[in-house]
Amino acid sequence: MRFLDVKTDYAFKKVFGSAESKPILISFLNALIGFPKGREVTDLVIVDPYQIPLLQGMKDTYVDVKATLADGREVIVEMQVLNVKGFEQRILYNAAKSYSRQLREGEDYTLLNPVIALTLTDFTLFETDEVCSRFLLLEKERFIQYRDDIELIFFELPKFTLDEGQLATIQDKWLYFVKNTGHLNVVPQALNEAPIREAFAIANTAAMTAEDLEQQERRHDFIRLQRGSQAKAFEDGQAAKALAVARNLLPILDDTAISIATGLTLEVVARLRVDAL
Questions:
Q1: What are the pLDDT digits (tens) for 237-263?
Q2: Where are the domains of the chain?
Q3: Does the pLDDT at position 56 exceed 70?
Q4: Angle, vertex CA 136, rays to CA 121 and CA 48, nearest 5
Q5: Residues 17 and 203 sit within 8 Å (Cβ to Cβ)
């Protein structure tokens, strides 16, 4: 068997945002959000049902699955593959927008329901070893909670390093599913339980059309190109820094010492010295 890489927007939305995804999404949200006892998700409506994303004019590499829970709470689920500029602001903006747009003109503010923004990233976001980070509105000095109406929850997949034999909780299993499904060719025994088993069935490429598979591959190509561009930009920036340091060292050190200090070749350092004359 082969499975879609669930970290891509096409596959993530297919698994968690399709019409048949309701029990899957309920289990996923309960596992990752960790609702207090008695407030677990028992029913929900998927607000943004799955539709095959159009590639023309495609500008985003994230998925946005929205659900309204039985008690009125709203949950936004996003899978972010690339660390793009403005990403953190966009998460906050989307949560605030979902919170504010609940009311029509003249309606009472007490009708507002809490919004939870659950985001999974395929990159490291915060300087901590913790896989999960949670944010609320708090008083700055005494950390008094203002309200829990807007909560931001992040899971950083690179920090999740458990192998199949170490999966102890349903949260572990769902994180393993999202991170590793694209590299598996069988359903791991530890994950062979409902509704994760049903999630594997949706992600199984055997039941998909050639058009479905082409959509997925084109998303992979898009992500690979974007990651390549980011890597090239980083390398160019590092090279520019090395050249600037080398120029500052020209009056102080010889070419060999500058080459060792900056990683530049002797030929490049020699050219810099000639250009500086």
A1: 888 888 888 889 888 888 998 888 888
A2: 9-208, 237-276
A3: no
A4: 55
A5: no
